[in-house]
C-alpha cells in the first residue's frame, strides 16, 4: 500500500502509510489502542477502502474486482476478527465452515447448513485448537476463549494465502495463546502464506513473527526484523514505560 490515508468522519485513523509485505512474511502489527492497527487489517481484507492512496492485496486492488474475482480474492484472505464475528445461535461446525463459504458454490454453502459439509476437516481444525468435543454445540454456549478458538479453526479450514489476525489470542491463557500463534504461523508457513497479526503481547510478537511494524496515531513509526528487537524496544508500543 502506498500513500494510504483512512478517515472516519473527522478522525484520521491512518495517514501517509507506505507498506509492502512480501509472501511468506509473518508480520506483527503493534501499537497503542487507537493507533490504527485494526484499520490496517480492514484495508487488507477489503472491508474498508482508503480515503486516499492505493492498496494492493495479493497483487490486485480489491476495488477493481467484482463477482467471481472478488469471491476468489475473499477465499484467499482469512481474518480472525477482533470481535470474532461468529453467529452465536449456529452450531460450531457451521461457524468453522464459514471460512470456506467464499470457495464453495452457493448451492454447497446452502446445503451445508442442513447437512454440514467437509466435517472431517472441521473436526481436525477443532482438535488442533483443543475443542474436539464441541462440533455440534451452539456457539454462544461456549466461553469467550473457546469462541476465539472457533474463530481460529475457521481460518485453519479456510487455508488462505493471507491471514489477518486481530488480537487472535486476547481471550486465551498463556499456554493457549502460544498454541494459537504456533498454529497460525505454521499453517501459513506450510503453504508459503503470509500472516499479519495485531498482538498485545510483545513476547508473542517476537517469538512468532519475522517482522514487526509499529503504528502510533495512524503513522508507521517502526518497521524492523523481529530478531533485531527485544521486548524493551516495543515497550512504548504497548503503553509500558521502559
Ligand atoms: N467505525 C469507526 N468510526 C469512527 N472512528 C473509528 C471507527 N473505527 C475506528 N475508528 C477510529 O480510528 C482510530 C483507529 O482505530 P483502530 O480500531 O484501527 O485502532 P487499533 O489500533 O486497532 O485499536 P485497539 O488496539 O484498541 O483495537 C481510533 O481513533 C478509532 O476511534
UniProtKB/TrEMBL annotation:
Gene3D superfamilies membership: P-loop containing nucleotide triphosphate hydrolases
Record carries keyword Cell division: no
SUPFAM superfamilies listed in its UniProt record: P-loop containing nucleoside triphosphate hydrolases
Alphabetical UniProt keywords: ATP-binding, Nucleotide-binding
One GO MF term: ATP hydrolysis activity
PROSITE patterns per UniProt: ABC_TRANSPORTER_1, ABC_TRANSPORTER_2
A cellular-component GO term for this protein: plasma membrane
Keyword ATP-binding annotated: yes
Domain ABC transporter: 1-242
PANTHER family xref list: IMPORT ATP-BINDING PROTEIN, TRANSPORTER, PUTATIVE-RELATED
Protein name: ABC transporter related
Lineage, broadest ranks: Bacteria, Bacillati, Actinomycetota, Actinomycetes, Kineosporiales
